[in-house]
Amino acid sequence: MEKTIKNTPKERQKLIRCHVTNGEGKASYRVIELEHFSLWKYLVTNKHGLTVSDPHLCLWISEEEYQENINIYSRAGEINQVNRISVELFDGMYGFTNTIQRFVPDGDTEEVVDIISSHVPQQYPPTYHNIFSTTMPVKLAWLRVEP
To answer: Which of 61, 69, 84, 126 has the fewest CB atoms found within 10 Å of its own CB?
Structure first.
């Protein structure tokens, strides 16, 4: 019996899920790439006066991978849908495209896309930028790490 090895690239991203509270006490949660979390936390705390608390390590995976490994991921704790928003900006001066990604809870995607769109500098005409969110369903598994 011949065994077939499935060699498809996995879309995974390590994220930090944390609670954010503004000066008026309004709380929400954010999902930030692990590599950017410390810098992001410093920025929102010192520039915007937000309080960041309760950080947890998470893994962003595709729905397909979740279903393939449901026995493992179903034990991971709380599972929520989070979308990836990609922003591509073409720099005509240097001739390259810069891609930025943000991860947001499913219910916040449209609002965040609108906010990001409003921040695109006027120097980028519509033909020089593209903002889109991931259309495939994804799961975010909270991997709770206790101190």
So the answer is: 126
* Distance, CA of 141 to CA of 147 (rounded, Å): 19
Measure the CA–CA gap between 46 and 35, rounded to whole angstroms. Answer: 19
Q: In the numeric block, which tokens belong to residue 126?
A: 């519509």
Q: CB–CB of 116/70 below 8 Å?
A: no
Residue 135: which of 60, 69, 85, 66 has the closest Cα?
85
> Which residues are registered as beta bridge partners of 53?
19
* 8-state DSSP, 113: H
- CA dihedral of 114, 38, 136, 138, whole degrees rounded to 10: -130
Q: What is the pLDDT along the chain (147 residues), one digit of tens a residue?
A: 444 445 455 678 899 999 999 999 999 989 999 999 999 999 999 999 999 999 988 888 877 888 888 888 888 777 888 888 888 777 777 777 788 888 888 888 889 888 888 877 766 665 555 665 554 444 555 444 433
Cα-trace Rg, the chain: 18
